[in-house]
Every structure is written in C-alpha cells, then in structure tokens.
Amino acid sequence: MQGWRRRVLFVSLYEAIAIAFSSWGLAEMSGDGLAHAGVMGLAASAIAIVWNLVFNALFERWEARQTVRGRGFARRAAHAVGFEGGLLLYFVPLFAWWFDVSLWQSLVMDLGLLVFFLIYTFVFNWCFDRVFGLPGSAA
After folding, report:
1. Where are the domains positioned within the chain?
2. How far is Cα 64 from Cα 67, in angstroms, rounded to an integer?
3. Is the dihedral of CA 77, 82, 22, 133 positive or negative?
4. Are 29 and 104 in contact (CB under 8 A)?
5. In degrees rounded to 5, what are phi and psi of residue 6?
6. Which residue of 9, 22, 100, 124 sits 20 to 30 Å from the alpha carbon of 130, by its own alpha carbon?
7. Nearest 5°: CA angle at 119, between 127 and 19?
8. Which pLDDT score, from 0 to 100, does residue 100 have?
C-alpha cells in the first residue's frame, strides 16, 4: 500500500490509539476529569493529524533523495524526534491555556506525553511497516 491510502490509514490508526492514551494521560497529569482532558485529546489529535500529513510528506520527500534505503534505527529515531518536536511547539501554549496552568507546568505535562509518544511513535511506525510494508520512498 502506497501514497495517500497508506497515509490515511497510518494517521487513522495512529491517532485513534493516541487519543485514548493522551486523554487519559492529560487527565492524570492535570487533575481534571477525563471529559475535559478528552476534549484536549481530540484537539491535539486534530493538530497532530495535520502535522503528521505535512511532516511525513516532507520526510518521505527527503528520504527518497537519500542514497541509503530502508529505515534503520537512526532514521526512525530522527523521524520520531522531528515529528514530536514539531508538536511540542503547538501543544505547550495550547495546554497552558486549556488547563489554566503556567507555561512551565504545560511544558512538564507535554514532556510527560512526549516521552510516551517518542516510544509510541517509534514502535507504531515499526509495527505499521511490518504489517503494511515499507513505503516506496524506503523500499
């Protein structure tokens, strides 16, 4: 599976799992209820979907120009760090506003999620590629 079909399936599976975990994690870290945190989980997911589509398109364009093919540990780690780093720029001010906490507290909350999502992103990408095969850019 290649192209937009692959990307839509990837994003859908990734975000469905992410909403469940991030809503629960935000509720635990903020002390707010799951419903309040769940709204932010959905908003964060919408932001992440757009960022995912943009970031992966740019990453695959860069990847297609590389002489070394495949997705080894270093390339997967760079992908995960780049993706999550971009989200950090969006989420810190958003979390501070929504949960009515300081930017520092929001950063700590986001870093908690970031640690989880760095691992999750790496594992999810590896599993997705094992099940659906590598994209054309890495094959």
Report:
1. 3-132
2. 8
3. negative
4. no
5. -60, -45
6. 22
7. 80
8. 95
29 contact partners, CB below 8 Å, separation of at least 6: 109, 112, 113
- What is the per-residue pLDDT across 32-61, written as a single tens digit (0 to 9) for each? 999 999 999 999 889 988 998 899 999 999
Give pLDDT, residue 24. Answer: 92
For residue 1, the model assigns a pLDDT of 66
Q: What is the mean pLDDT of the chain?
A: 89
Q: Which two tokens stand for residue 115?
A: 């640690």
Residues in the chain: 139
For CA atoms 46, 47, 51, 54, give the dihedral sign: positive
3-state secondary structure the chain: CCHHHHHHHHHHHHHHHHHHHHHHHHHHHHCCCHHHHHHHHHHHHHHHHHHHHHHHHHHHHHHHCCCCCCCCHHHHHHHHHHHHHHHHHHHHHHHHHHHCCCHHHHHHHHHHHHHHHHHHHHHHHHHHHHHHCCCCCCC
Q: What are phi and psi of 120, to 5 degrees?
A: -60, -45
